[in-house]
Amino acid sequence: MSASSARTSPARRALRAGLATVAAAAAAGALGGCSSGPAGSPSPPPSHAPASSSSSASATGAAVLDERARGTTVRVAPGTLVVVRLHGAYWSTPASSNPRVLTPIGGGTSASATCPPGRGCGTSSVRFTALRPGAVHITARRDSCGEAMRCPPGQGRYDVTVTVT
Q1: What gap in Å lies between CA 137 and CA 27, rounded to an integer?
Q2: Which of 62, 88, 94, 162 could form a disulfide with 81 if both were Cys (CB 3.0 to 4.6 A apart)?
Q3: Mean pLDDT value of segment 85-114
């Protein structure tokens, strides 16, 4: 172990590892371009995960969530980086129901430059930091699931419960 790594706190190493994970995932998404299915369908396909399912943050100290996490409960510790990345530019920016428990630290919607018109390629993402114990909902909405396509029932709302313990 080098002298400089011995001086780095475990929290700082976890944050760096989490940010490296986010950067790698963003690079992989950028290389994939617009990966929608048939015209107007979201990518990846929406999940029908049961509301009682549960997961927790990865060993890197970050929890990365996407459409497959919809309806689940995620448990994290204070200081954990929570990244929500929804595939499709039609999603609103995900929001926390209580910023005192889970506060946003950046995000927004980005469209893919290589996307055919009307496909909604891109991502709506946000990074949060878990501050203190409590339970919050991360929510996002969309009215359109493709060019001039209303979302079918259950596909226009994203809701994940995050429990900070």
Answers
A1: 27
A2: 62
A3: 86
Q: Residue for token digits 């929500």?
A: 84
CB atoms within 10 A of CB 35: 12
Burial class for 110, CB neighbours closer than 10 Å (0-12, 13-18, 19+): middle
Structural domain of 126: 3-164
Number of domains present in the structure of the chain: 1
Q: Are 120 and 146 spatial neighbours (Cβ–Cβ below 8 Å)? A: yes
> Average pLDDT in the 134-160 region?
89
143: CB partners within 8 A, 6+ apart: 90, 150, 151, 156
For 27, the token pair is 């690079």
**Mapping DSSP to helix (H, G, I), strand (E, B) and coil, where does residue 10 land?**
helix
Position 144 scores a pLDDT of 83
Q: What is the pLDDT of residues 24-70, one digit of tens each?
A: 444 333 333 333 333 333 434 333 333 334 444 544 579 999 999 99
* CATH number of domain containing 111: 2.60.40.2020
| Cα–Cα dist 141/129, whole Å | 21
Question: Six-digit token pair at 146?
Answer: 């493709």
